Amino acid sequence: MRPIRHLSSQLRSRFKDHPAQGLVEFALALPILLLLVFGVIEFGRILQAWLALENGARFGVRYAITGSYDPGYCDEAGQALGLYTEDLNSDTNVDCVITPAGTATEEQKKAAEEKSNALQDWARLASIRDAALAGATGIAWDQTVSGDYLGYLDHAYETSALETTNRGSPNAAGYFGISICSNRFKAPSGDAPYGSAFMFNPNPFYLEPYPASSKEDYRYPIYCQQAQLNSSGQVTSNMVRYVDDAGGPGDRVRVVLTYRHRLITPFLSSWWPTLRLSTEREGLVEKFRVSRVTGLAGAIAFAPTWTYTAPPPTETSTPTQTPTRATCEGTGTILREWWEGVDGSSISNLTNHLDYIEDYPTGYNFPTSFDAPHNWKDNYGTRMRGYVCPPYTGTYTFYIASDDQSELYLSPNTDPDNKSRIAWVKSYTSYTEWGKYPEQKSVSINLVGGQFYYIEALQKEGGGGDSLSVAWTGFQVSPDDNTPTIIEGQYLKPYTRVDKPTRTPTPIPPPSCDQLENLTLSSGSQEAVTFQYITSGGYLLESQLRNNSPYNVQLYKADMSYNGAYHNEIQSPDPDRSFDLYLWDSNTTIYNPPNTTALSYGHTFPNPKVMNPGTSGWFKFTYDKNIFNFWATPAVPHPSGDGDPWGGSSQSYNFYWSSDFNGHLYYNIIPPATSPTVSCVMDLTGKTGPRIMPTFSQTSKTFTLRAVVEGNQGLSGNDNNVREVRFFVYNSAGQLVHWSKDTSKPYCIFGGSSSCTTREINVKYWSYGSKNSPYMITNDTYRFVILAENNDSSNRYKSAIIEETFNVRANTPTASRTARPTNTNTPVTPTTKPTNTKSPTPKTPTKTPTKSNTPRPATATNTSAPTSTPTKCQTPIELGGCR
After folding, report:
1. How many CB atoms lie under 10 A from the CB of residue 50?
2. Short-list 516, 599, 524, CA closest to 562
3. Most buried pick, 299, 510, 583, 755, via CB within 10 A?
C-alpha cells in the first residue's frame, strides 16, 4: 500500500503547483477547433451551392435545345417586340403564334412565320431562366439584387449600347445571373443590312460606381452580343444590341450561370464576405421548326479582346479585330468521276443507271479546281466530290452552273450521309452562267474556318454543249458578295475512292406491274390519290408515280367514279363540279376531252404519256378551275365583330373525301422488242375523313358537349389524327350565340384538359371564341353545328360537318335529343351550266335528307319524363353514352 499512497501524494502536490492548466489549454485549442469545424461547414456549403448551380445549368441547356417555351411569357414578348396586338388579333390568343389569314400571300405567310419565330425566341429566354432556377434549387439567391431579367430583355430592344439597366448587382451576396448565347447568324434586316451574328463578349463590364480595392467584385459575368456583319460576312464592331439568344435549329447554345455565395466562417467572412461561383453547359438545338438559314453548327464565337493603342497626341482604347486564316491540310484537288453511254439529260437518268448505283464509273481523275471540262462529250454523267475547307469563319454562298441538269450537295460535317441539296440547275446554263435560275444559288451558310465539309456535285449531259462548275462567295474567297468565284484546289480535298473488283453482269429484271410505284401511296399520306391543297389551287385529284423499271412505261387510259357523297350536313356541294382534262406534272396536258359533269367518266388517251426509266411525276384528274374547287367556306351565318368565327376573313375546308373517289390508271410496261408488253391496272382511291360522334351531358344545373372524333373513319381510332374541332350554336330564334374551337382532346364545347368543362344554365354565358357572348345560356332548344378537320399529311386535310338539336333545361335530369331524319344515299346531281361565281348553297330549313358519309351510332329518341332524381349515365362517352 505504501507505493499507492506515495503516488497519490505526488498527484495532489502536482495539482496544487499548477492550478487551471487544463482550462488554459482548452482555451488555446478552442479557436483552432472552431475554425476547423466552420471550415468543414463552409466547404460543404460551397460544394452544395456549386453542385446546385451545375444542375441548374444542366436543366437550362436541356430546356434550351428543345425549342420549347412557356406561353405565359408571350404577353411580355409581344410588348417588347411591338407585336402584341398582331398576335392577339391573328387568332384571338396571345400564344406567340401569328396566324396568317386564309387569303394571305406567300410573302405575308413568310412574314407571319418570322414574327412568330421572334416572339417564340423571346419567350424561350425567360423560360430557360425558369428551368435553370428550377434545377438550381438550394442556392440562396436574392431576387432583389439579381436584377429583372424580363426588364433586361425588354430594354435590350430599345438601345444598342451596353448598359447595366435591370442587370442587378454582381457584388451583392445572393446575386444570380444567367447568360444565354448561341452561334446563330441572322439574315439581313434594317439594323443589319449584311446580316448579324451572336457571340459571347468576354471583355470586362462593371457596375458603377465601384471601389478601386474591390473592382472585380463589381464585374458582370460574360454577356451575349448581336454584332453586325460587313459585306464579306465578317463580324464588325458595330452592335445591333446586347441581348441573350437561344439559337435556332442546328445552332449551338450555351447557358452560363453565376452566383455570389455568402461565406459564414468567423474572421474569414469579415474580409472575404462572398465567393463568386460560375458554371456553364452547351448543347445543339434540335430541329423544332424549319430554319431558313442553314446553320452548320460550329463553336460559339467570342468577341475580340479589347487592346490598347496609343496614337499621338491622345490615348484611345481601340478594339482590334484581325481574322486569322485557317490552315487546311491535304488540299489541292477534288475527285471527278464520269459514266459514259447514259442517255437523257435528267439527273435521275444518271442516279437510276445500274453503273452508277453499283459505283462502276467509266473513269475518274483529280482536277485542281471545282470545274469539269466543258464541251467534252455527249450522253454522260459526272459526279465531283470531296471536302471543302473555308479559310475563315463566316457565311458563304455556293453557286452551280451546268449543261444539262445538275445538283449540289453539302454536309454539315465530313459524313456524306448527312449531305443535303443546297442548289441545282433544272435545265441548263451557259458555262459559268451563275444567275439564270434562282435555284442555282444556295442560302447563306455558316462555316467554321479550318473545318472540312463534304461537298458533292452531280451533272447529266444529253447532247450539245456540256459543262459543270461550282463557285462560292465569302470573305477573301471572292472579290465581293455578288461575284461568284470557282472554288480553287487550295480549299478542296478529294474524296478517297476505293476501286471495286470487276463485277459479274447482273441480269435485267423482267417487266412487272409493280415496277410503276405510286409514291403518294407509299408516302406518309398512305393514299393512292389525294386532293390538291387549297394554296396550290385545290381543283384536282393527283397521284405521284415513279418508274422503277429499266423500261419505258406507257400511260394510255384512266377512269374515275365518284359516289356523290358530300360530308357537310348544312350545305350542298358545289353544283358546278365539271371534269376538265388529264394533266402530267407541271401542267403538261395528256388529254383534253370534252368537259363532263357525270359522276363516272373514263378516257383512252390518243397520245399516251411515256415515262422513261427512273423518272417520276404527278398524274392529275383536273376539274374546271374557273367554276369549281374542292375547298369551300362553311355556310355558317354569323354577326360581324366578335361574333365572326373567321375573324373577318374566310376559312376553307374540304368536305369531299378521296375514299369516295375510285379510279383506275391503265399502263403498259414496254420491254425490248424480243419480249411481250405487260399490261397493268393501278387502283386509285384514298382514305376516309373525320367521323363525329357528339356526346351531350347535362345535370340539373349544368351541361356540356363533347365531340368524339375519329380522324379517319374506320382507320385512325377515336380522337386520333384530328387537327381541330369547331362548335357553332344557334338558339331557337336562329341567332349564333356561341362559337369555339378546340385543338386538343377531349374536344369539348367549353374546353377542358382531362374532362370537359361544364357551364351553369341560366347563370353563365355562351362564348365567342375566348370572349363572352352577349347571350346567356338559357332554357331553350339549340341547334349545334360541329365541324371537324383531320390532320392528314401534306396539308391535304379532310373535313366533316354534322348538325344536332338538343334541349338545354335547368332542373331537368336529362336533356332530350331531337331525332334526326335517317340519312339516305341520294347522290347530288350537278348541273351542266357553268357559272363564274363560287358560292356554296346553304340547305333550306326543310330538313330534306341529303347524302352524308359521316356515319354515327344509331340515334334513338332519349326524351325522359321529368323526375326529381337525375339518372346516372352508365355508358362510356366513347361509346355514345351520356347523351
Report:
1. 17
2. 599
3. 583
Burial 634-672 (b: 16+ CB within 10 A, else e): bbbeeeeebbbbebeeebbbbbbbbbbbbbebbbbbbbe
Cis peptide before 509 (omega within 30 of 0): no
Q: If pLDDT is split at 50, 70 and 90, which confidence band does 2 have?
A: low
Over residues 408-420, the mean pLDDT reads: 94
What are the residue ranges of helices labelled H in 400-473?
A: none
Q: How far apart are CA 149 and CA 129, in angstroms?
A: 9
Q: Are 96 and 87 in contact (CB under 8 A)?
A: yes
454-474 exposure pattern, b = at least 16 Cβ within 10 A, e = fewer: bbbbbbbbbeeebbbbbbbbb
Q: Please state the φ and ψ torsions of residue 773, each to the nearest 5 degrees.
A: -80, 155
Q: Is the pTM of this model over 0.90?
A: no
- The set of cell numbers assigned to 151 is 426588364
CA 300 to chain centre: 23
Q: What are phi and psi of 146, to 5 degrees?
A: -95, 5
Q: What is the pLDDT of residues 252-275, one digit of tens each?
A: 999 999 999 888 777 666 777 888
Instruction: With beta carbons less than 8 A apart as the criterion, state whether 815 and 702 touch.
Output: no
Round the CA-based radius of gyration of the chain to a whole number and report it. 37
And the C-alpha cell for 165? 439597366
Beta-carbon count within 10 A of 272 CB: 10
Residue type, position 130, single letter: D
Q: Please state, in angstroms and rounded to a whole number, the distance separating the CA atoms of residues 389 and 454.
A: 9
Are the C-beta atoms of 544 and 518 separated by less than 8 Å?
yes
- Output DSSP code: residue 431: T
pLDDT digits (tens, 9 = 90+) for 516-561: 999 888 776 678 999 887 777 788 899 999 999 899 999 999 999 9
CA distances from 294 to 406, 458, 540 (A): 21, 21, 34
Mean predicted confidence (pLDDT) in 686-699: 94
**pLDDT per residue over 283-312, tens digit each?**
988 876 655 444 445 667 677 666 544 445
Q: How far apart are CA 800 and CA 782, in angstroms?
A: 20
Nearest CA-CA partner of 265 in 256, 275, 252, 257: 275
Instruction: Please report, for residues 153, 253, 445, 448, 809, the alpha-carbon distance to residue 183 in angstroms, rounded to integers and kept in the order given.
Output: 19, 7, 12, 11, 61
DSSP string, 646-697: TTTS---EE---GGGEEEEEEEEEE--TTS--EEEEEEE------EEEEEEE
Q: Report the sign of the C-alpha dihedral through residues 193, 199, 203, 207, in that order.
A: positive
State the number of CA atoms in the 13 A half-sphere of 11 facing the CB: 6
- Residue of 369, 352, 716 lying closest to 549 (CA atoms): 352
Higher pLDDT, 122 or 881: 122
Residue type, 518: N
Q: Where are the alpha helices (DSSP H) in 394-534?
A: 519-522
228, 330 contact by CB (below 8 A): no
Cβ distance 551 to 613 under 8 Å? yes
Helix (H) or strand (E) segment spanning residue 63: helix 21-64
| Answer CATH for 335-494 from 2.60.120.1560, 1.10.150.130, 3.90.1720.10, 3.40.50.2300 | 2.60.120.1560
Name the β-bridge partners of 458.
383, 407
Distances (CA, A) of 185 to 247, 259, 595: 9, 30, 53
